[in-house]
């Protein structure tokens, strides 16, 4: 169920073009003059009515933090915390005030002391504190100006309630097997929530060392970024843990947790202690994560050739967590379903997810934590890189789990893996414990030399003996930055149009426009001034060689080395572009697929299926041609390719079903069942086989039951009854568990029983499957009940509300209900999630982006407009409206061809 969640989030990063919506991105300027005394009138007003001496969102750079001594004492009964800190700062330029971030904290006292400035040598010079909540800043006014190049120590006492949501220092609860509800306290800071837990310089550039102390009751433990040095007994039986001082790091990576969790531990090859923590009853689900994180840590330490710099690494499963995971240095936090693996109820896809998330967050320990972006506008690189490293590391540590790729993968393919890796290592070493920009990475990649290259003036030149294709680019001294800025500064992706004329290969690049056709009036304007540097690769019918060419102009012509019957661009789909074959190009490729699909590589076949359907959406290829291309799928031997084709066909079925276009729905159902019957009938209801065999089984049986294929429904019903009779004790094969539950949920008795089990289950993986099954009910009153439970946040946790609404909106009987709910309960939703949070974006797009009629578009538009007049704006509004318009257009254009194609094909 959270899969949907995952896809959306991954898309955000993987496309690498869309920035996560962090509204503070564009605030770059920071006035460096102390204008306060000269003209207080132009400054904002603090809460006490006095002028606040700073008007920028970004902090001034006159004062920088060096070290934080932070003491925190959360009370898990009264649900609040008292805390104090001492920040050692360096004054770089004379100033009358220190500006810090602080959000929702009650500041009780602030004092200043200095060993270096004699005027402040006496301890405890009390400071005036002004607060400007609109910028989440406080100003500490000093009686006498602080002097440049001297160090000062700021001491602040403060307190607050543990937050209700998922940010800052917040509370989370879980139920034990015995039915008791227990509370823990946990932090989550990225991007700007450290300021909710302690006053700080909450920008990634202000790196400092942190010494953390946590007071707790003896029934709890405390965890933080670093290992514990000692525990001291305090009054009233309380204990106080002191943690080692951290390395230099940004505030958003600080973390601490007070809980009563249990753990398993192991040691990586380098001696780093790795532990997995979960609530005590879930301890038995932690073992896979330990195995995976030890393997992955070993992999990264070798790959980056840089030791993980802390003595320990904890991975903790948090019962209430808004996103999937967070890479806090040394104390990575996860949603339970992103870390825990229960052999009885977690499927092979669940295992892949856990492995990917661990791989992703561990990659951040270097890329993000050791070297950090200067500012949030480069966050896509952090995330894009961690996503890229998932691919590299999982393919090595768990080759059987292999999966797909993105923009950085194209760059790796262009430079060669070795050179790319060298560049990354150079970058990580050069900027360790510091901050860097996009361009710094590109320069490191440009200048990474191999043994076989010789260097001159900082550039690499290829040895003439080297014949590798990629190196010829370096002879031309290609700057990675020139290539990459065409990908990071332009919105969207390119389309390469190719036409073969004898031995000439004519190439043309355009901006790929999904949903905008060439004869639309806006097409021309949307194309203007777009130009990418595209590393084009191609193979031909006459040899297995991979040919390479860097396309830097709008058009280009290449000469094929020999006569060939077909050409396939974007070898192995490593490039981040779509290819359209003009003239007979597509027909030739379709013919190859039908004659002997193995003449093309499996990843090329996936790429062809993908590009063909994308081109249909762009109005460049007719739907029947794309569907003709899928005909060969009955002979497809590569499971990933088969799954990709099935995905598209299934998505058409869902669209038709949701729109209630019954003739096409029926015919498509007949076609799918007739066409894939042999392979469906071959599937066993077990967990046997390779990872890919298992994924195919899950997908095919899910489709078959969804299409009401009698043998499938019969078997699922039988397993469900046996499971109910065994009072939920029978072990159903994990790969078909979701299918069995979904079929079982169609009767009232089954649905009620599942809801009961949902409340009792200790496995997040199982709960996700049950919740999905419950959301497929055809009874509206049951769907309403689920939403009510999600809003109440007890049986169904608030963290699962977004995926619940998403799932209900996918159900033809629930789509209108979910959407009406969002409209009518908008303010209630905002009480639970921030407007720009992941869940809110998933709720908005999840309950609207499948609409495909003009009336629906109008309704959604009106609702968004009403929100905008109240001051709420999100980029996702625009994306949703464009998506619905595209859906409408797709149907207008393709419905008749789909109808006809089916009539011919069944
Ligand atoms: N650092 C991110 C989470 C994040 C990003 C928080 C931006 C706030 C702002 C973390 O590494 C991440 O990417 N988490 C993903 C999981 C991942 C495997 C895609 C998530 O939470 O879904
Ligand atoms: Zn990430």
What does this structure look like?
The strands form eight sheets. An eight-stranded mixed β-sheet has the order 5-4-8-2-1-11-14-13, with no helix packed on it. It has about 900 residues and is an alpha+beta fold. β1 and β2 (about 80-90) form a beta hairpin. It contains 28 helices and 31 strands. It starts with a helix and ends with a helix. The protein is globular. Helices cover about 40% and strands about 20% of the residues. α20 (about 750-760) packs antiparallel against α21.
Q: Name the average pLDDT.
A: 92
- Low-pLDDT stretches are 1-33, 451-472
Give the radius of gyration.
Answer: 29 Å
Task: Give the count of helical stretches.
Answer: 28
Alpha carbon gap, first and last residue: 33 Å
| Structural class by helix and strand composition | alpha+beta
Helix content: 40-55%
Shape by Cα distribution: globular
**Strand line-up in the sheet with most strands:** 5-4-8-2-1-11-14-13
Bound molecules: ligand BES, zinc ion
Major beta sheet summary = 8 strands, mixed
Strand content: 15-25%
**Strand element count:** 31
């Amino acid at each position: 169920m959270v899969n949907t969640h995952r896809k959306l989030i991954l898309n955000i990063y993987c496309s690498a073009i869309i920035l996560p919506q962090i509204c503070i991105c564009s605030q770059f300027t920071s006035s460096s003059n102390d204008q306060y005394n000269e003209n207080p009138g132009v400054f904002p007003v603090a809460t006490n009515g006095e002028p606040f001496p700073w008007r920028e969102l970004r902090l001034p750079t006159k004062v920088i933090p060096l070290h934080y001594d932070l003491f925190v004492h959360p009370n898990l009964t009264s649900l609040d915390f008292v805390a104090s800190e001492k920040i050692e700062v360096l004054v770089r330029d004379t100033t009358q005030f220190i500006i810090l971030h602080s959000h929702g904290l009650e500041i009780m006292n602030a004092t200043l002391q200095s060993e270096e400035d004699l005027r402040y040598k006496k301890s405890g010079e009390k400071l005036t504190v002004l607060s400007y909540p609109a910028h989440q800043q406080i100003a500490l006014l000093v009686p006498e100006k602080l002097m440049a190049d001297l160090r000062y120590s700021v001491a602040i006492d403060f307190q607050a309630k543990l937050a209700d949501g998922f940010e800052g220092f917040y509370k989370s609860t879980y139920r034990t097997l015995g039915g008791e509800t227990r509370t823990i306290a946990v932090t989550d800071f990225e991007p700007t929530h450290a300021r909710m837990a302690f006053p700080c310089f909450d920008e990634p550039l202000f790196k400092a060392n942190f010494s953390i102390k946590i007071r707790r009751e003896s029934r709890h433990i405390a965890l933080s970024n670093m290992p514990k040095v000692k525990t001291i007994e305090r009054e009233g039986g309380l204990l106080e843990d002191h943690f080692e001082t951290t390395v230099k790091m940004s505030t958003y990576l600080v973390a601490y947790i007070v809980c009563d969790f249990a753990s398993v531990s192991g040691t990586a090859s380098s001696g780093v202690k790795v532990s997995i923590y979960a609530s005590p009853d879930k301890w038995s689900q932690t073992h896979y994560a330990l195995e995976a994180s030890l393997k992955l840590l070993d992999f990264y330490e070798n790959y980056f050739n840089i030791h993980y710099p802390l003595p320990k690494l904890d991975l903790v499963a948090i019962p209430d967590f808004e996103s999937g995971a967070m890479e806090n240095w040394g104390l990575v936090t996860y949603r339970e379903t992103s870390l825990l693996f229960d052999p009885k109820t977690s499927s092979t896809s669940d295992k892949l997810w856990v492995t990917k998330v661990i791989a992703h967050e561990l990659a951040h320990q270097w890329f993000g934590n050791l070297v950090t972006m200067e500012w949030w506008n480069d966050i896509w690189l952090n995330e894009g890189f961690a996503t890229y490293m998932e691919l590299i590391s999982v393919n090595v540590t768990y080759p059987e789990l292999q999966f797909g790729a993105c923009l950085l993968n194209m760059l790796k393919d262009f430079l060669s893996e070795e050179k790319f890796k060298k560049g990354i290592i150079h970058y990580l070493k050069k900027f360790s414990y510091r901050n860097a920009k996009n361009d710094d990475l590109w320069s490191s990649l440009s200048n990474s030399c191999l043994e076989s290259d010789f260097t001159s003036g900082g550039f690499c030149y290829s040895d003439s003996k080297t014949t590798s294709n990629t190196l010829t680019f370096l002879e031309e001294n290609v700057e990675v930055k020139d290539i990459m800025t065409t990908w990071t500064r332009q919105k969207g992706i390119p389309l390469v149009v190719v036409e073969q004329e004898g031995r000439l290969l004519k190439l043309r690049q355009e901006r790929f426009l999904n949903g905008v056709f060439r004869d639309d009036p806006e097409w021309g304007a949307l194309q203007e001034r777009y130009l990418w540097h595209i590393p084009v690769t191609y193979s031909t019918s006459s040899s297995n060689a991979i040919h390479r060419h860097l396309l830097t102009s709008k058009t280009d012509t290449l000469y094929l080395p020999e006569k060939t019957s077909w050409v396939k661009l974007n070898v192995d789909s490593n490039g981040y572009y779509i290819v359209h074959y003009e003239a007979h190009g597509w027909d030739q490729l379709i013919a190859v697929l039908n004659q002997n699909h193995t003449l093309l590589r499996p990843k090329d076949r996936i790429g062809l299926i993908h590009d063909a359907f994308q081109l249909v959406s762009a109005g460049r290829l007719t739907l029947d041609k794309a569907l003709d291309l899928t005909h060969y799928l009955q002979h497809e031997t590569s499971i990933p390719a088969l799954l990709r084709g099935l995905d598209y066909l299934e998505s058409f079925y869902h669209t038709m079903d949701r729109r209630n276009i019954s003739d096409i729905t029926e015919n498509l159902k007949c076609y799918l069942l007739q066409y894939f019957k042999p392979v469906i009938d071959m599937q066993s209801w077990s967990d046997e086989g390779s990872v890919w065999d298992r994924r195919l089984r899950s997908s095919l049986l899910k489709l078959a039951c969804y299409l009401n294929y009698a043998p499938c429904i019969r078997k699922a019903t039988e397993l469900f009854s046996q499971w109910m009779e065994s009072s939920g004790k029978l072990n159903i094969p994990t790969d078909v568990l979701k299918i069995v539950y979904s079929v079982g949920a169609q009767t009232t008795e089954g649905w009620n029983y599942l809801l009961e089990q949902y409340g009792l289950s200790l496995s997040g993986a199982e709960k996700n499957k049950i919740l999905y099954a419950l959301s497929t009910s055809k009874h509206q009153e049951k769907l309403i009940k689920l939403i009510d439970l999600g809003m109440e946040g007890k049986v169904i946790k608030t963290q699962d509300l977004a995926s619940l609404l998403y799932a209900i909106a996918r159900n033809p009987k629930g789509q209108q209900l979910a959407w009406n709910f969002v409209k009518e309960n908008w303010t209630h939703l905002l009480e639970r999630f921030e407007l720009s949070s992941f869940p809110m974006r998933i709720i908005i797009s999840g309950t609207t982006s499948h609409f495909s009629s003009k009336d629906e578009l109008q309704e959604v538009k009106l609702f968004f407009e009403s929100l905008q007049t109240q001051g709420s704006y999100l980029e996702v509004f625009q994306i949703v409206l464009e998506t619905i318009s595209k859906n409408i257009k797709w149907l207008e254009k393709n419905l008749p061809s789909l109808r006809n194609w089916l009539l011919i094909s069944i």
